Amino acid sequence: MPFQWTLQKLLDVTDTRELAAKAELFGISRRIAKLQEDILRRKNMVNALLQDMEHLKIEERMSRQETLMEGMAMERENIRLMIAQMHELHELREEKKVQLAKITAKKDTLNRLRNEARKKYEHLLGLKEQQQADESFNMRFARNRQLSFKPDAA
Question: What is the pTM assigned to this prediction?
Fold first, then answer.
């Protein structure tokens, strides 16, 4: 009879939960990286626009400056919102890391319990086999003894 552990389904569910938590953590990390990329791109765009303004003549600069300043104010607000969102994602990622650590600890405990149960099962199976071998040996010995015992004819 093969080894069957009563908590195997719980371990399987815990494995699935761990994979899902890892995938969720990966997704959050990707979103953070995307936000960082977007923030950097927007900051570079604002800096490039400011540098372009330096090369314009005064008359042209004055006509574009108001529009540029309004656009920059909107971009700064967008960047501020993106940074706030990124901080929220960092907090969420930390929460998910804690959850993942708990799930992993539970999985490790279940694996340890399964290994202990398997060792106990194998030990008991070995004892049973040894007992059967001993019984078989004793029966053969008794048969051989009986066959070799010849009563004296008195």
Answer: 0.71
Q: How many Å separate Cα 153 from the centre of its chain?
A: 82
Q: What is the pLDDT along the chain (154 residues), one digit of tens a residue?
A: 788 999 999 999 999 999 999 999 999 999 999 999 999 999 998 888 888 888 778 877 777 788 888 888 999 999 999 999 999 999 999 999 999 999 999 999 999 999 999 999 999 999 999 999 989 998 988 888 887 766 665 5
CA distance 32 to 39: 10
Alpha helices in the chain (DSSP H): 8-54, 58-148
The Cα 115–Cα 5 span in angstroms is 10
Which positions ≥6 away from 56 have C-beta within 8 Å?
Answer: 64
Amino acid at position 3, single letter: F
